Amino acid sequence: MLFTTPTQFAVCGLLLIAGWLFGFASHPGGKKWKARYHAERDAHAANRKSWEAEHKTLTAQADERIATAKTGLDEREAEHKARITELERENERLRNAAPVTAQTIAPRARSAVRSDARTSARDRGDRGWFDFS
What is the pLDDT of residues 9-20, one digit of tens each? Predict the structure, then answer.
């Protein structure tokens, strides 16, 4: 048991009464906390309004940037489609063109064929890495 003597009970009761008296003496009444509560409520409302205005502004800016990006994307898509159309037209023109035959290719001279470096090295008598004979 916590308290065993009458003196301890008397001290406990005295401390209880002293605590009540000290609490009543330091209590501001009610006007002080009500005023603080109203000030905090007004500050929160003002802060909330400024946040909402800023959010609305940022949302409008983001929507504008998205619209600009979509416009640029549409322009690039149109350019790509025009390029595809041009390439398809070129492909169709090449499909319908006359085929290239052997007669249209000019034959090369024999002297141009012998200008190879290996052939000229053999003609000079130089030996290569694998020329053992």
Answer: 999 999 999 999
